[in-house]
Each structure stands twice: as C-alpha cells, then as structure tokens.
Design goal:
It is built from five helices and six strands; from the N terminus they run E-H-E-H-H-E-E-E-H-E-H. The protein is an alpha/beta fold and 196 residues long. It has a single domain, classed as Peptidoglycan recognition protein-like (Lysozyme-like). The structure holds zinc ion.
Length: 196
C-alpha cells in the first residue's frame, strides 16, 4: 500500500478535478468497498476540541503502526471534506477478501446507531456518493450489477472472514447504489455495458 506523506483534503468538486488527472497504469481496481469508521463516531469527530487535520493525521499514524481492519483505506469521507490517505492508483489494505481488487472508502461515523439520512451523516453520505460517482465514472465501473468479489459496490461486511459489521445497518446498499448512479448521470457519465 502507498500512504501519502501527508493526507490531503478535497471538496467534492476539487476531488473530481484531482481524479480526472489520475492514471491507473499498473494496478486497476474493479469495484469500490465501503466502510464506516465506527470509532470515531460522527459525534466524536465533530467534537470541536480537536482540529480535524490533527485527527486524520493521528488516524494515519495509527494505521501505519498498528494492524487494524481498516488500515490502508484510500479515502476517509467527512461531513465537509474527502480526505485522501493512500495513493488511489495503488492497492490499499481495507478488506482481507479482495484488497487487490478494490478502492477502500471509509465514512466517518458509526451508522449502526448514527443517522445516515439527516444532519452530518447525510453530509458524509453525499460526499461519499460524490467520491464514488467520480471514481466509477473515471474508471469505467458501475456500482450496480453486484457479484461478490467481482463487480458492483461492495460493503466490508460482505467479506465474511473479517467478521466486521461494517458499514452499520443504517447504510442501505440499494439506496447508496441508486444515489451513485444518479450522481454519475448528473456528471454525464455513460454507463459501461448498458446494453446487457
Ligand atoms: Zn470496514
């Protein structure tokens, strides 16, 4: 995996410009895997006593130094920004079943209990949807037509051997996929394989 020396934060528009310039010449992902952090929860993340950047940097440090389910995700999605931690053009480490096939996206929050359809949870959702739409469009992928380990948007919990209920049940895949497709449409993406 390739950690960036310094995590970088993007608005969704800036992330679109950034991804547009990327090239996947060696490794090429075939689907996205979605996570939520669980810890920190959104409530902890939004606690004003600590600067967001400090927190993401300490998270990056944690990931480098301690083996963890979510070590080496490519993106961390917050209510306001999309943070890039690992090189999107290199394999990451986020899900033991299919690291070699996937871009790992971590959403800040514990969606087993926190809301994913209102307040800051909905902001995280919208930023994650934007990031996924941008990546799917650029890579010529579809979030739908799921086949385990092959194609379509994956959730971490679909990797049974990780025994990790991630993301929490308030994240509903059919809803996320529909939102990514709608956003791709808004971005002018033509869906690959639309004829079959
Ligand atoms: Zn996970």
């Amino acid at each position: 995996m390739s950690f960036l020396p310094e995590p970088k934060a993007y608005t969704p528009d800036e992330f679109g410009d950034f991804v547009e310039k990327l090239e996947w010449n060696g490794w090429r992902p075939t689907f996205v895997t979605l996570h939520n952090t669980g810890v920190p929860s959104l409530a902890v993340w939004l606690d004003p006593r600590h600067a967001a950047k400090q927190r993401i940097e300490s998270q990056g440090h944690y990931e480098r130094d301690i083996l963890h389910w979510h070590s080496g995700v490519h993106l961390f999605v917050a209510p306001n920004l999309i943070w890039n931690l690992c090189d999107l053009t290199s394999q990451g480490v986020s899900v033991s079943c299919w690291n070699h096939l996937t871009i790992g996206i971590e959403m800040i929050g514990d969606y087993a209990t926190e809301s994913f359809d209102s307040g800051p949870g909905a902001q995280v959702r919208d930023n994650a949807v934007a990031a996924m739409a941008i990546l799917h469009r650029k890579l010529g992928l579809r979030p739908d037509r799921y086949r385990l380990g092959v194609r379509g948007l994956h959730f971490h919990k679909e990797c049974r051997r990780d025994h990790h209920d991630c993301p929490g049940r308030n994240v509903v895949k059919a809803d996320v996929v529909a939102r990514v497709l709608a956003k791709m449409n808004a971005l002018g993406a033509s869906l690959p394989g639309a004829d079959h």
